[in-house]
Amino acid sequence: MVTADRRRGFLRLVAVKSHRLHLQLRICDNVHGAVEGDTCFAVAQEFNLTHAQFNAINPNINCNKVFIGQWLYIKGTA
Length: 78
Hints:
By secondary structure, the chain is an alpha+beta fold. It has one domain (2-77): Membrane-bound Lytic Murein Transglycosylase D, Chain A. The chain has two helices and four strands, in the order E-E-E-H-H-E. A four-stranded antiparallel beta sheet has the order 1-2-3-4, with helices on one face. A hairpin with a 2-residue loop joins strand 1 and strand 2 (9-15). The chain is globular and about 40 Å long. The relative contact order is 0.23. This is LysM domain-containing protein. It comes from Zingiber officinale. Keywords: Chitin-binding, Virulence. GO terms for molecular function: chitin binding.
């Protein structure tokens, strides 16, 4: 898997068994810099996102290890 991050979104290329590439484009319009005590759940609630919406625009976030200063996408398309 190859991931290229950009400020306004990221592009992820995923190799599948057939050796074709599957292209996923996510566009990020706003981000939140995590502060002490932030959790995925708390940030999602703060910005009126469902669990599914938050996970769709933050697919590579490990919610057990959110760190101070980590950029969390809070508005975008998946």
